[in-house]
Amino acid sequence: MTPKIWDRPPADVLQADLERFRQTALEMGATEAKIITADQVIIDDRVRAKCMNPKCTFYGTNGNCPPHAPDLDTVRKTIRSFSTAFWLS
C-alpha cells in the first residue's frame, strides 16, 4: 500500500514517523539520536574553516563539501523552512 502524501502530516503521524526514524538511526549505529526543533540547529561559520585548515581529505570531492556545498546563508535559510530536525552522534 502506498502511504498518503500530505502537504503537512497530522501531528500524531509526524511524531510517529520521527520516532521511527530515530529508532532506525540508533539501530544503524548512532550513539545518540534526538528529535529537536529546527531552530536549535546552529550553523556556525567556523565549520568551513575546519574543512580548509588543515585541508580535509574530502575537500572539493563531493557536493556536500566545500567549495561545492551551499553557502552558509543558503543553509541557514533552508533550515528555517523546517520545523523539526535530528541530532545524531
Task: Please give the alpha-carbon distance between the first and last residues.
Answer: 33 Å
Q: What is the number of beta strands?
A: 2
Helical stretch tally: 3
Low-confidence stretches: none
Q: Which percent bin holds the helix content?
A: 25-40%
The chain-level mean pLDDT equals 91
Strand content: 5-15%
Largest sheet, order of strands side by side? 1-2
The helix-and-strand class reads alpha+beta
Major beta sheet summary: 2 strands, antiparallel
Order of helices and strands: HEHHE
What global shape is seen? globular
What is Rg?
A: 16 Å
Overview of the structural elements:
The termini are far apart. By secondary structure, the protein is α+β, with helices and mostly antiparallel strands. 0% of the residues are buried. 37% of the residues lie in helices and 11% in strands. It has three helices and two strands. Strands 1-2 form a two-stranded antiparallel ribbon. It has a domain of 41 residues.
Any key phrases for this structure?
89 residues, 2 strands, 37% helix
Topology:
Layout: H1 11-27, E1 33-37, H2 46-52, H3 72-80, E2 84-88
Antiparallel strand pairs: 1-2
